[in-house]
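Chapter summary example.
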Amino acid sequence: MVLALCVVLSLLTGSEPVALGEVLRVLFADDRSDAAVIVHDLRMPRTIVGICVGIALGLAGALMQSLTRNPIADPGVLGINAGAAFGVLIAIVGFGIGSFTGYVWFAFLGATLSTTLVYLIGSRGNDSGAPVRLALAGTAIGAALVSATEAMVFLDPKAFDEYRFWIVGDISKPEMTVVVQLLPFLAIGTLVALSLGPRLNAIALGDQLGKALGAGLVQTRLLVGVAVLVLAGLATAAAGPIGFVGLAAPHLARAVTGPDQRWLLPFAGVLGAVLVLLADVLGRVVLPSGELRVSILTAIVGAPLFVYLVRRRRAVA
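The structure predicted for these 317 residues follows.
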């Protein structure tokens, strides 16, 4: 119900007001009026991309938090978004690729490499794998990748115009072709993620008990890694780095469903879509003129939540 309301708000809200009755009429009519162009060519693709990106980020965050038992795990916090962004820049600068299907593979590769580095660094020492260590490692790797990305952009001015809009994290100018290209990746990542609910429930009881219950640890971790990389990679490739949705959505879902992963995962995906659409709608109206990017609004809400979670974990420890 909340997601449906957000979809309606997304179709209604913008610099050019369109009444609800007019939106409903043009949705189901072969019409090329101004209202139809606004709804079909601008707001509908934007809304669908927002839903896809939100579902992907919500699921990816829930998977990471569940597998690592780390309440601050998030594709952005652990450097996955920065790695995917760096991969996309390599595609743009090094190979002249400008389409989603072209650079999504580079996004996957960059996300894989950055995740590997974060876990190698964060898992060293006596306090290996601690949430704060992984967050610090992710912050360090993300900062290094951002610096390398900015240096490459300045060295190649031709790529700057295309890259500078994408890197902010935005869904304001999508096309239906991008929507069509997104759906297969989203379907694969979502199906794999939802199928892992029972295994993650078993692993949550402890590695040894999870093994006794038939949840293969290596296979489960591999499938979670594949799902997270597909979901976070497609979200970053389609909309740029949008942070903190993968952090907030699972916590909101957990407050509703409890720890059962069979319910938590789908709720996290839906709430991720709600957060992205709400941020997008607010971004259209919060400024007197122009729009505020989605990633800016999600960071405004997500950064205080991240600080709160870190401080709460420290107090519990």
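To summarize the output: The first helix runs from residue 2 to 12.
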